[in-house]
Amino acid sequence: MASELTSSGRPSMNDVARAAGVSLKTVSRVVNGVASVSPVLAAQVQSAIEALNYRPDIGASNLRRSDRRTGTIALLLEDVGNPFSAALHRAVEDEARTRDVQVLTGSLDEDPLREKELARAFTMRRADGLIIAPASADQSYLSAEFQDDTPVVFVDRPGHGIAADTVLATNVIGAAEATRHLIDHGHRRIAYLGDYTRISTARQRHQGYLDAMQAAGLTPDPAYFIPDLHTTPAAESTVIELLHRAEPPTALFTGQNLVTIGAVRALRRLGLHRTVALIGFDDFPLADLLEPAVTVIAQDPAMMGRIAAQALFGRIEGDDAPPRRHWIPTTLIRRGSGELPPGP
Amino acid sequence: MASELTSSGRPSMNDVARAAGVSLKTVSRVVNGVASVSPVLAAQVQSAIEALNYRPDIGASNLRRSDRRTGTIALLLEDVGNPFSAALHRAVEDEARTRDVQVLTGSLDEDPLREKELARAFTMRRADGLIIAPASADQSYLSAEFQDDTPVVFVDRPGHGIAADTVLATNVIGAAEATRHLIDHGHRRIAYLGDYTRISTARQRHQGYLDAMQAAGLTPDPAYFIPDLHTTPAAESTVIELLHRAEPPTALFTGQNLVTIGAVRALRRLGLHRTVALIGFDDFPLADLLEPAVTVIAQDPAMMGRIAAQALFGRIEGDDAPPRRHWIPTTLIRRGSGELPPGP
DNA sequence: TGTGTCTGAGACAACGTTGTCTCGCAGTGA
DNA sequence: TCACTGCGAGACAACGTTGTCTCAGACACA
Q1: What's the pLDDT at B2?
Q2: Ranges in chain B, pLDDT < 50
């Protein structure tokens, strides 16, 4: 157990070499599984490694290696604590795991400055690639940041100012499907309630709503267009105000999770949860256990993460085809709230 | 815009030095904010940095630096996709952010082998510290893995075989409070339904249940002790079976999130959700919107993450006091399901 | 026996950066 | 004018590792 280290910290290959009575380079060969080492020496090296608890420093390795891979990718999401981001994160991790790659994560909180700070932090750590759900309006800074030699994949939201693979939900189609579903159930006064207009998914979902209304020959009433809701309390109070109007909508289409939940709370407080129809974009846990259960346009964050990670690793491994755009389909899940008829 | 790089990849300090007409070391001084550089040269260096989009390689920096900090910590959780882990992760990130530290994450899925693999992967990346919710029974391997020079903090579950700071919820107290609450509402036949017994939190919550029963002079019926439930479907079918027995319990105490949700589903299917009382350990979104709303013992994963991160950074910065144990209190939230009286 | 080939293993430089040492030069005081 | 001080800035080695080169020795063959 007596360790013969020159330095006080972790043992290095040199310490292992000394302990095993071989050259540094031979230790390197054993660690990297190069075949041309005689079994006798290899065994000596192995036991020295175990005696000293030697662990290679992949930072130093990376510095010298020709492929320059750190075995680390970066993942920038809206908020690793929210269910959508968390599910996507998990799927990325699963893909990374099969390749022995680790994942550095960061939350952007819709803050463009934070996005740039984190991009820089990850550049300085020489991540092999980046998956990002961008918060800022323009990602052209990324090509300078990464010198165009680190692949980038956009997920959930498209990037701007830089060509890269992109993985998106079918926001327009899904929102149109939700709206059409409400129209098919007899609704005409349908309100759209969405997130900040600067967020592209919010704009697309609104677009889908408009498309479906127009396709049905209905004129969307601007009074029913309610953007810039970002939190549950904001959505709740806004819905209460909306339903107190002289001519309230008979159906609500909510363009985001927290907004949907705010709407559910508001309808409950007003006792209108069995009267006013509701469809939310993005599924959430227990939606099926509410009264009435909430009809949603479900996204598939796990698939988005998986496809994004596969695209990224493809690029890291040398795929240099033109950037691709992957559409991940949404699904209408009928549960009750979206099938309520309009009042008399 | 013409870049004068020797190498084809990212520019190095050498490239910046050449472009600015100064020595490599002067660039290093400017990058590290050493004051003793004349303003003129510093400005030349700055503009060369910007022209070349130079970004320091903190891996190389770390290799040479005396403090040996990578500015990266590792976080090992049960599953970054579940709400508890995700909330904890987010809190750790927030603490790390104030210190310009990035977070490497990994999910263990109750797999001891995965725990060891990830510990090794993070050692090889020379993380400055580790926060872990352990899946294996013994973490003594960590002191070899980290050579005792990388601080470790256990969170949610205690570690074994290695002394380290530990951040735990008051599982026994919280579970006892839940059970007492049911007893106070007149229940005598109370079932405990929990996760795998090998998980320490599951054992502690069961212990709290036993404590409260005994304190009330009740003998816990072994038939009402139902361990090893890990998923919602398993919990759902088990609860259905349980309530079909000749003498079913009048109240359920569920020791974990997914089990609670399985119980809610089962009670709904049986139409007993207003008859059989239910208290769950760990809060979950929308628990207050169910019918009846679900009474829970709420944990505070964000506080657990924050305290764990603060403890870890304290150690990283040199705190060498004996290991501490931090207890994060749980809170009983009365919502209705836990206040139902026993049937006649 | 001499020559050539092969193989295993060590020597050395280099990756990008920082710690330490040294040196030149301007400014100071006698 | 001459030492002395102080300060800015460069030279050099080193961190832990791998790529490349070289060399010693075993072996085969003419």
Answers
A1: 34
A2: 1-7
Indicate the burial class of A318 (C-beta count within 10 angstroms; 0-12, 13-18, 19 or more).
Answer: exposed
The Cα–Cα gap between A286 and B33 comes to 53
Q: Which residues of B touch A63 (CB under 8 A)?
A: 57, 59-60, 63
CA distance B184 to chain A (A): 28
Which residues from 23-62 of B have any strand D atom under 7 Å from their CB?
23-26, 36-38, 40-41, 60
Q: Between β-strands A190-193 and A102-107, what pairing exists: parallel, antiparallel or unpaired?
A: unpaired
The model's confidence at residue A304, banded by pLDDT at 50, 70 and 90, is very high
> Could you tell me the distance in Å between the CA of residue B24 and the C1' of nucleotide C18?
11
Strand D near-CB residues (< 7 Å), A 43-62: 56-57, 60-61
Distance from CA of B46 to the nearest CA of A (A): 16
Which secondary structure element, helix H or strand E, spans residue A75, and what is its range?
A: strand A72-77
The percent of residues in chain A predicted with pLDDT above 90, rounded, is 92
**Which residue from B59, B72, B85 is facing A62, i.e. has the nearest CB?**
B59
> Quick check: A12 CB within 7 A of strand D?
yes
Kindly give the residue spans of alpha helices, DSSP state H, lying in chain A: 13-20, 24-31, 39-52, 58-64, 83-97, 112-124, 141-145, 171-184, 200-215, 232-243, 257-270, 301-316
Query: Which amino acid belongs to residue B258?
Result: L
Side chain identity, residue A336: G
| pLDDT (0 to 100) of residue A8 | 57
Helix (H, G, I), strand (E, B) or coil at B332: strand
A123-147, pLDDT tens digit by residue?
999 999 999 999 999 999 999 998 8
For residues A35 and A238, give the distance between their C-alpha atoms in angstroms, rounded to a whole number: 69
Q: Residue type for B230, please?
A: H
SS3 A192: strand
Determine the distance between A137 (CA) and D3 (C1') in angstroms: 64
Q: Is the CB of B219 under 7 A from strand C?
A: no
pLDDT digits (tens, 9 = 90+) for A48-67: 999 999 999 999 999 999 88
Average pLDDT, chain B: 95
Q: Taking CB atoms and an 8 Å cutoff, what residues of chain A touch B337?
A: none
Residue B216 Ramachandran class (φ > 0 left, ψ -120 to 50 alpha, else beta): alpha
Output the pLDDT for position B128: 96
| Residue A154 phi, psi (nearest 5) | -90, 140
pLDDT tens for A82-99 read 999 999 999 999 999 999
Per the structure, the residues numbered 1 to 60 in protein chain A that have their CB within 7 angstroms of any atom of strand C are 22-26, 36-38, 40-41, 60
Between CA A264 and CA A271 the distance in angstroms is 10
**In which band, very low, low, confident or very high, does the pLDDT at A7 lie, cut at 50, 70 and 90?**
very low
Q: Is the pLDDT of residue A209 over 60?
A: yes
Q: Determine the Cα–Cα distance for residues B118 and B124; give it in Å rounded to an integer.
A: 10
Q: How far apart are CA A119 and CA A108, in angstroms?
A: 11
> How far is Cα A190 from Cα A225, in angstroms, rounded to an integer?
9
| Nucleotides of chain D touched by protein CB (<7 A) | 7-12, 14-20
* Chain B residues touching residue A89 (CB < 8 angstroms): 80-81, 86, 105
In this prediction the pTM is 0.94
Q: What is the pLDDT of residue B8?
A: 56
Amino acid of residue B247: E
Q: Residues B56-69: pLDDT tens digits?
A: 999 999 999 988 89
The amino acid at A105: T
Strand-pairing partners, residue B296, are: B280, B333
Distances (CA, A) of B232 to B275, B276, B340: 21, 18, 23
Give the number of C-alpha atoms closer than 13 A to the C-alpha of residue B212, restricted to the C-beta side: 26
